[in-house]
What we know:
This protein is mainly alpha-helical. It is built from eleven helices and no strands. The protein has one domain (6-207, 229-283). Helix content is 69%, strand content 0%. Residues 198-239 are annotated as: Disordered.
Amino acid sequence: MNKKKLxxxxxxxxxxxGTTFALLFNKMVLGGLTFHEIAGTAIGFAVLAHVLLNVxxxxxxxxxxxxxxxxxxxxxGYALNVLLLLSMIFILFSGFVxxxxxxxxxxxxxxxxxxxxxxxxxxxxxxLIGIHIGLHWSWVINVVKKGLHFNMSKVRSKVIWTSAAIxxxxxxxxxxxxxxxxxxxQMVEGMFSSSSIQAGHEEGSRPGFGQxxxxxxxxxxxxxKFQGGDFHGEGARGGHTSASAANVLLENFGVMAVFAxxxxxxxxWLLLRRKRGTRxxxxx
Length: 284
C-alpha cells in the first residue's frame, strides 16, 4: 500500500470502527438485533485489519518495551492498545455466547453472567476508546489538515479548535450526567463480585457444547430478552425503546469526547510541565 495513503486508510477505518461501536449501544437502531450482531462481528474483522495496518509499529514497540529510553507515553499507549484488544475480544466472544441471530446454538458457561459482562466491558471499552483518541488526537488533526489542505494562522486555528473543544466537552459532560454513565461503569466491578458469580451459576448455568441446555427455575429462555438496564435499547423492565441512530451516536460520541478531551489536555499539560522543568534545569 502507498505509504502516503496509509494514514488516511487508518483514519477512515478508525472512524468506521468508532461509529459502528457507538451504534451498538442500542440494538433497536438500523434493523434491530440483526444489525447489532452482524456489525458487532464485523468489528472483530476491522480490529484485525487495524492491527495488521499497524503491525510494524507493534513489532517495533514490542521489541523496545523494556528499553529505558522508551517514552512513558509510548508505554502507556502500548498498554492501552493491548487492553483495548483484549476488551474487544471479550466483547466479541461474549456476544457469540448470548447471540440470538448469528449463533443461536453457541453455548458456553452461564449466559446471564456473559450478558452482564458484555454490557460492563462495552461501557469500559467506550472509555478506553476515548483515551485512545485523546492520545492520538494530534495525529488525527495533522492527517485531516494534510488531507483537506487546511491552511490557517496558528492564532485563528487555536481559537477555532479551543472553542470547538469547549462545546464538545460541555455536551459530552451533559451526556455523561443525563445517561448516568459513571454509574454504569460500576458494572465492571460487579463482574467479579461473589454475588454476581453465584447468581450466574444459580440462574444461568449452561452445559457444554453440543448438549441440550436445561432451564433452571427463574432462568429466561434463550429467545427472550435480558431484563436489566437500558443497554441495547432495553428498558428497566425489559421493554423496548426506539432510538434514532443520530441520537445514539451523539450520546456515545459525547461520552468518548469527554475522555478524549481530558486525556489530550492532560497530555499537553504534562508535556508543558516537562519542558518548563527542563528549562529550569538548564538555567540552573
